[in-house]
Amino acid sequence: MPARGKKLARHQLTADDVQRLVDQVVVHKWSYEDVALKLRVNRGLITRIMAAYKADPSLVEQLAQKEDRRDQQVALVQDSAEQLLARDGCIRKLSVVQQHIEESAGEELKPWFISKVLRGLLELKYSKVQKLPFKANFEDRLVLRHLYAKQALELLETDARLFSIDESWLNDTSWNQRQWHQHGARNSVQSKSISPRLSLLVAIDNRGAIYASMTQVNTDHDVFQLFLTQLADVLTTEDPGWPASTYWLIDGAKYHKAEETLAKMRALGMRTLVMGPYGFLASPCEMVFAYLKQVDLNPDNRRTGKK
Questions:
Q1: Signed CA dihedral, 212, 213, 216, 217: sign only
Q2: How far is CA 149 from CA 135, 153, 249, 289, in A?
Q3: Which has more pLDDT, 240 or 57?
């Protein structure tokens, strides 16, 4: 019940509050005025609650079930937010939480409810992102890239097999941003979006072999581990002794360095070497992604979406 001097609205009453109010009227035979004065609620509110109770005596039970349901939904948002913050360090949009809950629990929650939980219970803020200067050439980054290159070159001298592994995505079949045209001529092309977008995972070794997969889900540590498991099976079929001379070059993505992922790689016999930060040019996978994004992947204009 409210503190002294305050009155609660209907939506602020819990099932226990309503049960107490009903008991005062039905069991103790108090008048509506006495209940309003004693419990410090609006008399009109008591009238509406009692009318609802007389129409349906299971009112309190329904309210209790609704509260239990709400508590379960709050727990889903809390668990999802904690997982996303641990994985990504931030939550960019409410739709990210909404999608995560839908995929993990099959529950579809409204954005306003998710926002209320994030702000009220988890005390998170949605504020403008502060843009920082590009830090690729800071001294510590340069040192880390130098150390990585030194280790990679030393391994190459031993005739080791080095796998570079990375991921990207495609949401359009034509990434052309500029083209030559005559003055005054129309400079536009038809949009060729891919829906749902394609997520790519590519592994390339220093001997020219390429292994790739394509999905329509966001790449996370579960998808990455599944790719590693299936890739290990393929390599074992080709050469059962591959772990003895093979090293895996990964970047600093959170799901690459997650303990669960590293444990999986150790279990598969994969020895890892973490690339230096901002070392894009050291990853041959980037050449594959760059090639795919510089050509028209759908010159025949075949259907690429549901619509």
A1: negative
A2: 19, 6, 11, 22
A3: 240
**Residue 26 structural domain:** 10-57
| 37 lies in some domain | yes
Tell me the whole-structure pTM to 2 decimals. 0.56
Spatial CB neighbours of 259, under 8 Å, sequence gap ≥ 6: none
77 and 216 share a domain? no
Residue 305 pLDDT grade (very low, low, confident, very high; cuts 50, 70, 90): low
Q: Is residue 126 part of a domain?
A: no
pLDDT level of residue 151 (50, 70, 90 thresholds): very high
Closest CA to 249 of 283, 218, 217: 283
Confidence of residue 12 (pLDDT cuts 50, 70, 90): low
Q: Is the same domain home to 168 and 252?
A: yes
Tokens of 143: 């040192």
Give yes or no: residues 38 and 68 share one domain: no
Name the domain count of the chain: 3
